[in-house]
């Protein structure tokens, strides 16, 4: 079985993310996935600038979120981001979001990103060499 990589980060729900009932608007959960991806990238050297500096961009082509429990203004949020290794030229992350104070499961989901050449936005059908090296370095292949 292939090894997995995981990052956990904590954020606080901002006033601007909640509605008049102080409940977080559903679209912000996808942004919390983004916060998790960025924290993962910083920890493991797979941030957006790392990819860009190697000649690629990685737009999201799929985002899925299952909502379990609401977050409210001021809540501490634990975002667990798990890199899912695969052979295809894509990056998949699974996410689990918890209320950090109660450990209540709040949401879960995933995103899929593909590799595009940063100059002409041509889809890459095979993994770029730098990504193959990254996966090998972290025991993903």
Task: Describe what this molecule looks like in 3D.
By secondary structure, the protein is of the alpha+beta class. It has a single domain (5-129), classed as Hotdog Thioesterase (Thiol Ester Dehydrase, Chain A). Helices cover 23% and strands 35% of the residues. The strands form two sheets. It has a five-stranded antiparallel sheet, covered by helices on one side. A two-stranded antiparallel ribbon has the order 2-7. Strand 4 and strand 5 form a beta hairpin. The chain starts with a strand and ends with a helix. The model has no long low-confidence stretch (mean pLDDT 95).
Give the low-pLDDT segments. Answer: none
State the helicity in percent bands.
10-25%
Principal-axes shape call: elongated
Strand content: 25-35%
Note the gap between the termini: 10 Å
CATH second-level architecture = Roll
Number of domains: 1
- Characterize the biggest β-sheet: 5 strands, antiparallel
What is the arithmetic mean of pLDDT? Answer: 95
Order of helices and strands: EHHEEEEEEH
SSE blueprint:
Blueprint: E1 5-12, H1 27-44, H2 48-53, E2 56-57, E3 60-67, E4 76-84, E5 90-99, E6 105-114, E7 116-117, H3 129-137
Give a quick summary of the entry.
The protein is of the alpha+beta class.
């Amino acid at each position: 079985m292939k090894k997995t990589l995981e990052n956990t980060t904590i954020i606080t729900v901002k006033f601007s993310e909640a509605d008049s009932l102080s409940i977080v608007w559903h679209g912000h959960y996808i942004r919390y996935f983004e916060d998790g991806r960025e924290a993962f990238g910083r920890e493991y050297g797979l941030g957006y600038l790392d990819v860009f500096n190697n000649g690629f961009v990685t737009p999201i082509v799929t985002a899925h979120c299952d909502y379990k429990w609401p977050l409210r203004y001021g809540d501490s949020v634990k975002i667990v981001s798990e890199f899912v290794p695969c052979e295809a030229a894509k990056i998949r992350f699974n996410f689990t979001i918890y209320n950090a104070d109660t450990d209540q499961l709040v949401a879960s989901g995933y995103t899929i990103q593909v590799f595009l050449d940063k100059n002409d936005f041509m889809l890459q059908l095979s993994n770029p060499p730098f990504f193959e090296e990254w996966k090998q370095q972290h025991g993903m292949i």
